[in-house]
């Protein structure tokens, strides 16, 4: 099967040069973060990802998680790998230092998370969901709940889940029906069924801590009547030991297109008298708490888009180098060459490579903004970064995951007929990527959030600031006196104009005709992603040129970066104006047919 | 008991090296470097002896450029207590390294040196043996099992045709073979702790050692391309070819 090796050089470049690792390292609480510590952590994480997790990716896909008699058995090797993962301390990387975490910055955990997800996305979902549950307890849990659950969840001894979805409550969580009945002793009995619960049951740890959305008896209808509860698989005694089995059971797991090794569970609460839980935070505010954590969760899924693209690229590149087929175009009777010689294979690979690097650049820059939004001493800097994070989260989530479907599909294409054969492994990345545009809010949900809350509601203030930064990079590229950088400037300039045109349309239309604005929302999300990626690739090209002129570092890396940015500008950024056209003109055709005409 | 472990920074085992165009050596500009795998086994063994309560301190030593600090930190992340870097930009050959290690041993007085049997870059397989000779200590090379008791090391070594078990008096030099152990993955807390462990830097001159190369590399070249195989009709022809063409039997 395919090997994975973390793209450490590009990760370092993006962290240091684009995302401002130095600045992040100077934030309060990050005193220990030095460049060599970061390098040492990246190296060791790469060893773990490539040595332990990546080899299980394919077998996990083939064997899958199994359900039998109410319990899930994970794919072969999973249990040992998880034990090693937790014992190595990786679950605690970004965890709160008060509960045994290392408290390392988001920027670093972002790079490390990319490795877990590239190496083995199905595996990575378990620690990712646990992180979400930890966040919820940290934010709103009582001291008792925190003491009881957090240390063991951060150490990885226990895992966590998020129980939101029910058969009738998918994107519309207002429809949640699971009930919580107060017992008068501070506990509640939970009754109901939850579906799509990732790692809702498994055999890797002794306990699983479920966070569950449910309604109290007197709760108002709709979104303002949903509360959040913590429900352990095994009750926890006061001394921390495990008590009775709680009444929450996995009644089946789903058969899915991808991520076969990640058990997607149907959980039944209260079939045998009621599952015991305690309330997290205040009654009826559960959904609001979920939204606080939404940024982190959506960002993490966006990282899956990036990570799968990287893995698919490495896979396809290896194949293209090994596969000999035909002769060089225009050479009669020449020697047989590997398919990397063929123009369209190059185009496919450059498409994959340039989009992947653009996604990495944007995602890490947003990761660093998370750090600054949380820890910068200056309140206005915090607010500015928070606004940037809020604007970009739907873009990172939506654009990176939509990209990953294209990139992993290109990966299949590079393999030709072999790509369609499961044993080649390229198809797995394609299948695994397909969920990423759906869970944690579909692309449409992201796009609605983007044009509504993030742009129309604040009258485009934050996006205007971002456009200004993009224009500055465009000007710098144009003034660099370099043909490649000039070409990037031209394409970036057109892209930024497309964004301006689309934003103006959205601002003018949103309050008048929300459906018309919504038709263009996904194209707009893609447009903003493409141009924001181009903005970061433009910055990368400028830095690469400066490094080359100064004779610093490895010339071949920087030359490659400029060529990659140029390709991105000519092939990807160039699509911006077409998207703007669709956003501004596309409503009529989409909305006109009556239901009968469909 | 103090154990000293020499660690070498080499081109990572995953990297496919290329010979420089002028044949003067291998191009290592911008390639990934990491700890020599045999040395990693040596560090692991020393740390296991410490964890078993046999050893009290594990000191990692590296000789070479400033970047060898990373190699020492990696050894400390596995569990070495401190590091010593003998810093020099001069190309170091086995004899020079053995002399530097002798100087460090004289100062540190370890009870045992565990070294990798060879480095995967030059494959010299000399440093451990030379160090033992310079120190006048016994040596047990290619160890696949090490047990310490009563001031002695019982070392099982892999030799042609089987295993040999030696008993050597401490202090001694032991070099590791591949099957001695499987090095652990460093844990995140230990990577972070490694940053705070002491790392001393000395120069060859401080140790009074002349590290000037004694050997000259004349030429480095890629191995010849394997030529195409040949199909034989029967066993008799195969034997004939092996005898008269390949000249291997």
Automatic annotation (TrEMBL), chain A:
Name the cofactor(s) required for activity, per the record: FAD
Residue ranges occupied by any Acyl-CoA dehydrogenase/oxidase N-terminal domain in the UniProt entry: 40-157
> Which Gene Ontology molecular function entries are recorded, alphabetically?
flavin adenine dinucleotide binding; oxidoreductase activity, acting on the CH-CH group of donors
Limits of the Acetyl-CoA dehydrogenase-like C-terminal domain: 472-593
* Family annotation (InterPro entries): Acyl-CoA_dh-like_C_dom, Acyl-CoA_Oxase/DH_mid-dom, Acyl-CoA_Oxase/DH_mid-dom_sf, AcylCo_DH-like_C, AcylCo_DH/oxidase_C, AcylCoA_DH/ox_N, AcylCoA_DH/ox_N_sf, AcylCoA_DH/oxidase_NM_dom_sf
Q: What does this protein do?
A: Involved in the assimilation of dimethylsulphoniopropionate (DMSP), an important compound in the fixation of carbon in marine phytoplankton, by mediating the conversion of 3-(methylthio)propanoyl-CoA (MMPA-CoA) to 3-(methylthio)acryloyl-CoA (MTA-CoA).
Entry protein name: 3-methylmercaptopropionyl-CoA dehydrogenase
Which organism's genome codes for this protein? Answer: Thauera propionica
Automatic annotation (TrEMBL), chain B:
Q: Which UniProt keywords apply?
A: Electron transport, Transport
Q: CDD domains per the record? A: ETF_beta
Cofactor(s), names only, from the UniProt record: AMP
User: Which residues are in the Electron transfer flavoprotein alpha/beta-subunit N-terminal domain?
Assistant: 23-211
Record flagged with keyword Transport? yes
- Give GO terms for biological process: carboxylic acid catabolic process
UniProt entry tagged with the keyword Transport: yes
Matching entries from Pfam families are given as:
ETF (PF01012)
What top-level branch of life does the organism fall under?
A: Bacteria
Could you tell me which SMART domains the record lists for this protein?
ETF
UniProt-listed InterPro entries:
ET-Flavoprotein_bsu_CS (IPR000049), ETF_a/b_N (IPR014730), ETF_b (IPR012255), ETF_beta_N (IPR033948), Rossmann-like_a/b/a_fold (IPR014729)
Q: Which GO terms describe its molecular function?
A: electron transfer activity
Recorded hits in Gene3D superfamilies, A to Z, give:
HUPs
| Residues spanning the membrane | none
The role this protein plays is:
The electron transfer flavoprotein serves as a specific electron acceptor for other dehydrogenases. It transfers the electrons to the main respiratory chain via ETF-ubiquinone oxidoreductase (ETF dehydrogenase).
In the record, the note on similarity to other proteins reads: Belongs to the ETF beta-subunit/FixA family.
- Self-association state and partner proteins as the record states: Heterodimer of an alpha and a beta subunit.
Can you say what this protein is called?
Electron transfer flavoprotein subunit beta
In which organism is this protein found? Thauera propionica
